[in-house]
Amino acid sequence: MEKGKLIIFSAPSGSGKTTIVRHLLQYPELKLEFSISATSRPPRGEEKDGEHYYFLSTEDFKKHIKHGDFLEWEEVYRDNFYGTLKTEVERIWAMGKNVIFDIDVAGGLRIKRKFPEETLAVFVKPPSVDELKIRLKKRKTESEDKINMRIAKASVELATAPQFDKIIKNYDLDTAKQEAYDLVAGFIGLHK
Ligand code: 5GP
Residue 7 class from Cβ within 10 Å (0-12 exposed, 13-18 middle, 19+ buried)? Predict the structure, then answer.
């Protein structure tokens, strides 16, 4: 199979990486297709199975682990498993497209190690941990407990930023989106 590129956007929850990934998906010239992860957490809000995630029971998720079906997987939060199925990357490469990932820091670095040549790993940095807290509260999708769990993880994740190929500081969303576009376009060899 012809290999496409792997574009990873990793960041602490609330940094704006999902918004940036969604933005990049609007440009057909980048030939990006979103890697739909599998997760054992329940759907949130309007999330749909097979669109935002493949929602699996914990039991099914563990079966896939046992069968070696994952490119990478992680227990991102306690009892909440997330992972990228090998078939997902194959599906996208078979379409002749590049894969774009919205995954956690550990998962992103693991993919980079497996495919060093094909991967661009980008870390999206929030202005500060305090700002993250404000953004997560505004989102109103998680309980106070869950928000605190995400904040605690964020501090650890911020320390891994230097291991990524590129860092985007998301102080201003429009600037961050433009930077992200330029990085991806450069990496896939597209000249504006
Ligand atoms: P959320 O519950 O907010 O959708 O995602 C929680 C965290 O899990 C986010 O940091 C998200 O990027 C990460 N995540 C989503 N899919 C995957 C995946 O396939 N693998 C890994 N390692 N992390 C993922």
Answer: buried
Residue 147 Cα to ligand 1 middle (Å): 15
Q: Is the pTM of this model over 0.85?
A: yes
* Domains of the chain and CATH, by start: 6-187 (3.40.50.300)
Choice from 7, 35, 37, 153 to test ligand 1 binding pocket (greatest atom count within 8 A of CB): 37
CB 124 within 8 A of CB 168: yes
**Tens of pLDDT, residues 88-99:** 999 999 999 999
DSSP E strands in the chain: the ranges are 6-10, 32-34, 37-39, 53-55, 70-77, 80-85, 98-102, 119-125, 166-169
Which of 6, 129, 132, 142 has its CA nearest to residue 80? 142
How far apart CA 177 and CA 21 sit, in angstroms, is 9
